Amino acid sequence: MRGFKRTVSLLIVICVMITCCSVNTNTAEAAAITVKKGSDISEIKINETTQKVTAKEISHKAGWYKKSGVQYYFNKNKTTASYKWENKTLYQWKNGSFKKYNGVCKLSDGKYYYFKKGKKTAYSVKSNKWKKDKKSGQQYFFYKNSKSASYLYDSNKKTVKKWDKSKKQYALCTGYVTLSDGKRYKFTNGKKDVTKVTPAKKYNDPGPVNNILNSGRAYGSTYDKNGNVTCHVDNYGYVYDKNGNYAGFNVYY
Fold it and tell me: Going by fewer Cβ within 10 Å, which terminus of the chain is more open, N or C?
């Protein structure tokens, strides 16, 4: 009888050990979202204890992969997922866990979005603005109250791209674009024509106007001790002389 009890106890311990081992890692096939077939990730594993997500393949393309309704982003040839998109919240794998992301990131729909505490957020509620990434040299243009970037400017390659609704991707731009320096440039197939530089004239452009006094744009004025106007500053931070002409600089830069 004692031998029988020992056998039963041993079987229970073995079953518990097997159960514990089996739930630690969840393995399933991964569906590629933004990468073409060939050198894709075919299988990903999720450690249910640490939530770390790893890829089966060592050599693969960068892109978003989907498993059980959750999207994971892998950098090229990296075995650990860098980002997780779940329940309309973006997480970044950092220091051993997924944390809600702050900053700009490209989702599987091809668009760059601004995130605050993991949620898509309007980058600016007051005006159109460029956001600079000093590390990569990439710049993102957001219209007022917009959560996604409409233009991309690569300061290393000196090229600008615009979101193409029909192609659902950022394409090299042809036309006039006001850059973060406040100047309006002409671009052809994404390349800048430095001979075509004019001040921004539209109210919604993130740049200066020719004359602030007759532009219709909101501005403030500074005065000397005698009450005379010394300069004007518009709501974008661009400075104008006492006659309203653009002075050539911005108080924020």
Answer: N
Residue 136 lies in a domain: yes
Pairing of strands 43-47, 25-29: antiparallel
Helix (H, G, I), strand (E, B) or coil at 195: strand
Which region holds residue 60: left if phi is over 0, alpha if psi is between -120 and 50, else beta?
A: beta
- Within this chain, do residues 81 and 117 fall inside the same structural domain, yes or no? yes
Give pLDDT tens digits for 150-166. 999 999 999 999 999 99
Tracing tokens 């290393």 back to the chain, one arrives at 156
pLDDT single digits (tens) 95-136:
999 999 999 999 999 999 999 999 999 999 988 999 999 888
Residue 1 belongs to a domain: no
221: Cβ contacts below 8 Å, ≥ 6 apart: 229, 231, 232, 233
Which domain range does residue 186 map to?
Answer: 125-207
Q: Domain check: are 38 and 115 in the same one?
A: yes
- The answer on 80 and 65 residing in a single domain is yes
Domains of the chain: total: 3
If asked whether residues 94 and 69 sit together in one domain, one would say: yes
The beta strand positions in 24-96, using DSSP E, are 25-29, 31-32, 43-47, 53-55, 63-67, 70-74, 83-86, 89-94
